[in-house]
Design a protein that fits this description.
Oligomer: homodimer
CATH topology of chain A: Hypothetical protein af1432
Radius of gyration of chain A: 17 Å
Helix content of chain A: 55-70%
Number of domains of chain A: 1
Distance between the termini of chain A: 57 Å
Number of strands of chain A: 0
GO molecular function, one term (chains A, B): hydrolase activity
CATH class of chain A: Mainly Alpha
Keywords (chains A, B): Hydrolase, Metal-binding
Order of helices and strands of chain A: HHHHHHHHHHH
CATH superfamily of chain A: Hypothetical protein af1432
Strand content of chain A: under 5%
CATH architecture of chain A: Orthogonal Bundle
InterPro entries (chains A, B): HD_domain, YfbR/HDDC2
Largest sheet of chain A: none
Organism (chains A, B): Microbulbifer taiwanensis
Number of helices of chain A: 11
Protein name (chains A, B): HD family hydrolase
């Protein structure tokens, strides 16, 4: 019973991710996306695009990774992908994930902290694919939303291409399609 | 390439779930929850409570079920769990799920439509557990949030106990803990 109580406390705590705002707006909405709904969206995207991963992936591990990949933002906040990653920010996120997962009974969180570290390192087939998918919805938001977050944050096209080319590490075919869309965005003037 | 394009259209379409508002407010927030962030929350809750399922469950199937369980609401909207289910509402949801999943290439959606039907029927171990978990966060919202959705929708305590006792079909231990919390809510006067 005590273990269930502890897990319910964890469930309430992680809900704070619903208040962490990201930089892009979902297609059709005039508000910024939060990290909880983003997490759902990337899980579903990963599931439906799994056949295009470069390497065989265990999709169930990918989904678990994506379910927890942003938990560190409860304490550390969201950082735009185009910002240079600072060691301070990375440490704050790792500490945040660790704190939240430590709320689970019987060190059950340890397994998920390892999974989070694997995602961050991006060195396994699953993490390469998960990190590729993590980039897709915000790009679609910008592509369908006049490049709003690129403009608001002064992100030049060179940076958009360079940072997102990591999609190709997880799925070359997906990057080929997205790269084409980014080129169209340059042609139409929403990406400069 | 065409298949990837189609899948990206699906990814943009399902994003509409971020605009479907539910009846409860997340703990600590002054706005109603949307069905996309709810979907993430129940996936994570299911993962962390899996050891308390009455029967052995394939947690990966449970998570996939919960990722898609609300897709029908894009067309049909959210209905409070305490409303009597009408055949019309159920049909609208099933048609909605079918429409959205049909956007996927190569009839890939068929497998997920079956999974959605399994969830709705609630007759397998996985669906019993998934349906139990689906009830947990809204109860926590009410319990931590002064019973706001019970009050706003005039839900009497008899109905709250009766409808949520289905949690016991998925996890007796979890229902025991939640039932205790509901009794406390009656004692403290937030559930009448």
């Amino acid at each position: 019973m005590k273990e269930i109580e502890q897990t319910l406390e964890f469930i309430v705590e992680v809900e704070k991710l619903k208040a962490v705002l990201r930089k892009t707006k979902p297609v059709g909405l005039e508000r910024r996306e939060n990290s909880a709904e983003h997490s759902w969206h990337v899980c579903l995207a990963a599931l439906m695009l799994k056949d295009y991963a470069n390497e065989p992936v265990d999709i169930d591990r990918v989904i678990k990774m994506l379910l927890i990949h942003d938990l560190g933002e409860i304490d550390a906040g969201d950082t735009i992908v185009y910002a240079s990653e600072t060691a301070q920010q990375k440490t704050a996120e790792a500490e945040g994930v660790k704190r939240v997962l430590a709320m689970l009974p019987d060190n059950r969180g340890d397994e998920y902290f390892k999974l989070w570290c694997e995602f961050e390192a991006g060195e396994s087939a699953e993490s390469r694919y998960a990190r590729a998918i993590d980039r897709v919805p915000p790009l679609l938001h910008n592509l369908r939303g006049g490049g709003h977050a690129w403009k608001e944050n002064d992100i030049p096209k060179e940076k958009v291409f360079a940072v997102n080319s990591r999609i190709g590490d997880g799925s070359r075919e997906l990057w080929q399609v997205i790269e084409g869309k980014l080129q169209q965005a340059v042609s139409s003037g929403i990406l400069k």
